[in-house]
Amino acid sequence: MGPPGPGGGSGGSPQFAMLHQADALTVPFGGGTVPLAPGVQSLGIRCQDGVVDLLQPGIYCIRYLVLFPVAARLSTVLSLRLGEQLLPGSVCHVDKENPGQPFTAAGQAILNLESSGALTLQSTKGFSIAAAAEGDTLASLTVIRL
Q1: Are 45 and 54 in contact (CB under 8 A)?
Q2: Within a domain: residue 9?
Q3: Would the N or C end of the chain have less CB density within 10 A of its end CB?
Q4: Is 41 strand, coil or helix?
Q5: CB-based contacts of 133: which residues, under 8 Å, 6+ apart?
């Protein structure tokens, strides 16, 4: 076992999750949770229906990317939320009016979690986009407990 980590960890097994959405991405009219499917996850983190349940206290590094292909036109605000709480550093305003250019939205946060919580990636407006090519990843969310 290694030395304690920045979050006071014991050097044990890392906790992580990676969620993604490929081919098509749809947020319901009126906005809401960006639907992401679990790719990989470890014990201590549970993913279902775009919600990441952080089951243990600790310090987490969270990052997201949403790729809007050339043809997409939309205006929304993306952000990470722990329950209803907005996580600082995670807000990205998307104003993609030009359908001739792709756009990448990104956000990140470091979170000191004192008890369990539910993490989501939220959009203020609904949208539906399709990938430029089959298998393209349109959105991803990575969570690592430090």
Answers
A1: yes
A2: no
A3: N
A4: strand
A5: none
SS3 content of the chain, % helix, strand, coil (to 5): 0, 60, 40
Q: What is the dihedral of CA 17, 123, 33, 54, to 10 degrees?
A: 40
Tell the residue number behind the tokens 């775009």, with chain if given: 50
Asked whether the beta carbons of 59 and 114 are under 8 A apart, the reply is: no
pLDDT in tens, 56-79: 999 999 999 999 888 778 889 999
Domain with residue 73: its CATH number is: 2.60.120.40
Q: Which range of residues forms the domain containing residue 82?
A: 21-121
Is residue 11 in some structural domain?
no
Quote the Cα angle for 31-37-42, to 5°.
Answer: 125
Does any domain span residue 57? Answer: yes
What Rg value do the Cα atoms of the chain yield, rounded?
16
Which residue type sits at 127? F
Q: What domain count does the chain have? A: 1
What's the farthest any 2 CA atoms get from each other in the chain?
52
Q: Can you list the residues of the chain whose pLDDT is less than 70? A: 1-12
